[in-house]
Design brief:
Layout lengths: L1 E6 L8 H11 L3 E4 L29 H10 L5 E4 L2 E2 L5 H14 L4 E6 L4 H6 L7 H17 L3 E4 L4 E5 L13 E4 L3 H10 L2 E3 L2 H4 L2 H15 L7 E5 L5 H10 L3 E6 L4 H11 L5
Parallel strand pairs: 1-2, 1-11, 2-3, 3-5, 4-5, 5-8, 8-9, 9-10, 10-11
Antiparallel strand pairs: 6-7
Helix pairs in contact: 1-2, 1-10, 2-3, 3-5, 6-8
Length: 278
């Protein structure tokens, strides 16, 4: 089972290129970056974690720009989004960005995607929260077409792309793996229908065995082979028994939380996590 970290790449924390190098030097498999384009000050949407919105949500770099810097100073580290807010992004531009990053990094990108929780943030991007998951589905399907077809096109209720040449193509075939965030049964059905893996938060998803059993039940119902699906667990407890339990249950990857802190504190946290790699 792979071990990586997820990180809010903020303007006051350790710089992403240095973090990426330190992760690779220590033997971590991956770096996943979170995304928020902005946070409307109205704060109508309550923070899902409860209480005040943490500071790092307001200060994030663009994940694709930051991952490009990480790619330039590493050779093997996997580079992921956790999550990319697809409902807030133009699918043509995003498909081109991902294909470019995948090519220039030598095929190291993992596409963590999701629908988001901040309703006013997505509304500012012109997205109706009530239909965001239908939009998510069409944008992901359209991007898959642009990555895999010579003359790509898509027709849907929300996305329409006339036959077009879309280059570069990703290095990974047929495309970078798409892993979908969320914990509801609706998320699981979307994973099974049009994604390559699941990206659940550890606590809402339940115990390791329960997490894997939920996905298997939906996959079996739809006739999807579980061996074609990965499971990347987000924010598990950073303890040996927890990590071992996910590995025993069949998880593909765990992502430990890297706080948005300055360099010295960030390196101390990596040293705390290092024993979990063995």
């Amino acid at each position: 089972m792979h071990k990586g970290v997820f990180f809010f790449p903020t303007d006051y924390a350790i710089e992403v290129p240095e973090l990426a190098q330190e992760l690779e030097n220590r033997g971590f498999e991956s770096l996943f970056l979170c995304e928020h384009t902005h946070i409307p000050t109205s704060r109508r949407s309550p923070f899902p974690g409860g209480g005040e919105l943490p500071r790092h949500y307001i200060h994030t770099h663009d994940p694709f720009v930051a991952l490009s810097f990480a790619a330039s100073v590493t050779k093997n580290l996997k580079l992921g989004t956790g999550i990319c807010l697809v409902i807030q992004r133009d699918p043509i531009v995003t498909a081109n960005t991902i294909a470019s990053l995948d090519m220039l990094s030598g095929g190291r990108f993992i596409f963590g995607a999701g629908g988001g929780w901040n309703l006013e943030e997505m509304e500012n991007h012109g997205t109706d929260p009530k239909t965001r998951f239908k939009l998510l589905r069409e944008r992901l399907l359209a991007m898959k077409a642009m990555w895999t077809e010579e003359e790509a096109s898509f027709r849907g209720d929300y996305v329409n792309i006339e036959p077009s040449w879309c280059y570069p193509k990703p290095v990974q075939r047929p495309h970078p793996p798409i892993i979908l965030g969320g914990e509801t049964v609706h998320t699981l059905r979307r994973v099974v229908e049009f994604c390559d893996g699941w990206l659940p938060r550890a606590a809402p998803a339940g115990a390791p065995e329960e997490t894997m059993a939920k996905l298997k039940a939906v996959a079996d119902e739809a006739g999807r082979d579980m061996s074609t699906l990965s499971v990347t667990v987000f924010r598990p407890q950073p303890a040996r028994e927890t990590v071992d339990a996910y590995e025993a249950a069949g998880a593909t990857r765990v992502l430990l939380e890297m706080p948005s802190v300055a360099r010295d504190d960030a390196l101390k946290k990596l040293d705390e996590y290092a024993p979990l790699l063995n």
